[in-house]
Design a protein that fits this description.
Layout lengths: L1 H32 L2 E13 L5 E3 L6 E9 H7 L5 E5 L4 E3 L2 E5 H11 L5 E5 L3 E4 L1 E3 L1 E8 L2 E5 L3 E3 L4 E3 L2 E6 L1 H4 L4 E4 L2 E6 L3 E8 L8 E2 L3 E6 L1 E16 L5 E6 L2 E9 H6 L6 E5 L10 E8 L6 E4 L3 E8 L1
Parallel strand pairs: 1-4, 10-15, 11-16, 20-23
Antiparallel strand pairs: 1-3, 2-9, 3-7, 5-6, 6-8, 10-14, 12-20, 13-19, 14-18, 15-17, 17-19, 20-22, 21-26, 22-25, 23-24, 24-26
Length: 318
């Protein structure tokens, strides 16, 4: 019985001993953390205020090491957070073709972003060389990559409307000089009989790795109208025949098919067309056939074509 009681007493002593040991260690650890230390820490760089004439390259430095003096608590904190400082590039200077931030400028920027309880002693470099290069800007037109299948007797009135119709490109002059057009991603529409409007992404060339674009999408819309067809009988005019002769064509008129909206067709007359045959096309041959050409037609119609593109003729002396 006494042996059992003595054993329980010893266990309690061991527990109390370890409790005091742990408390002593914590007290020592906290006391040491409150003391000032000097150590090094890495900071991720976030560039801002880039000058309009410069662009940040792909090889820009993204971190920097700094020697700091602060309490152990602060260093413990820095081991568990993502340390980031902003670098103001409006203060960058051109030094023999390299864009740099001197050490004093960089240190001042960093000190303003550190806690007052942290002292910045030095950096791992005398200056920060920033991967910047001169850029040019250019407005490039946007074109729609449009594949539309219409219902019978429907057609697109005019060109598709693209909003906005240009994109501002900023990049190296050698890279963007030959860029004249940016296309939208493909728009496929079927059985269309009414107006349409689509927001689509732009497709940028893969070789423009150092260029940036002001937008990445555009709206493509189109006005769809119903059309009809009408045939006009147009007199044939012959030019450049020999002096002292006249040319009689057989027939002396030709049918022209005009495709337009119903409203347009109401105002179109035969006088809006001109069909000619140029006698010079024979070039001295004995051929008795002339090819025809439409030289005048109404504006903004959807299609005009000759139903016959050649006629026979007879050259008669006056």
């Amino acid at each position: 019985m006494f042996k059992k009681a003595f054993s329980g007493f010893n266990k309690r002593k061991v527990k109390v001993f370890f409790l005091f040991l742990i408390c002593s260690f914590l007290a020592w650890f906290l006391s040491n953390l409150s003391e000032p230390y000097e150590s090094r820490a890495n900071f991720n760089l976030n560039y801002k205020n880039l000058p309009d004439t410069l662009l940040l390259g792909n090889n820009a430095v993204n971190s920097i090491e700094a020697k700091l003096r602060t309490s152990g608590f602060k260093f413990l904190y820095y081991n568990f957070v993502n340390k980031r400082v902003e670098v103001d590039l409006s203060q960058v200077v051109n030094n023999n073709g390299n864009y740099v931030l001197p050490e004093d400028v960089l240190k001042k920027q960093m000190e303003l972003q550190l806690s007052q309880s942290i002292s910045l002693i030095d950096l791992d470099r005398d200056e920060l060389i920033v991967d910047l290069y001169q850029v040019a800007t250019k407005e490039v037109s946007i074109k729609a990559n449009l594949d539309v299948q219409f219902q019978q007797n429907y057609i697109l009135e005019g060109d598709p409307i693209i909003t906005p119709n240009v994109v501002l490109v900023k990049g190296p002059k050698s890279e963007i000089d030959t860029l004249n057009t940016i296309y939208t991603s493909k728009i496929t529409l079927g059985d269309v009989s009414s107006d349409f409007s689509k927001d689509v992404l732009l497709v940028f060339p893969k070789n423009l790795s150092n260029s940036i674009f002001s937008i990445n999408r555009a709206n493509v819309s189109g006005k769809v109208v119903k059309f009809s067809e009408r045939v006009f009988d147009i007199q044939i005019r012959v030019f450049n025949f020999p002096s002292g002769y006249q040319v009689n064509t057989f027939p002396n008129s030709v049918s022209v098919l005009c495709k337009a909206t119903i409203e347009q067709l109401k105002s179109i007359t035969a006088e809006d067309f001109e069909v000619i045959a140029d006698y010079k096309q024979l070039n001295g041959s004995n051929n008795n056939m002339l090819f025809l050409e439409i030289t005048r037609k109404p504006e903004n119609v959807h299609g005009v074509r000759l139903l016959e593109n050649k006629v026979n003729f007879v050259l008669e002396q006056k």
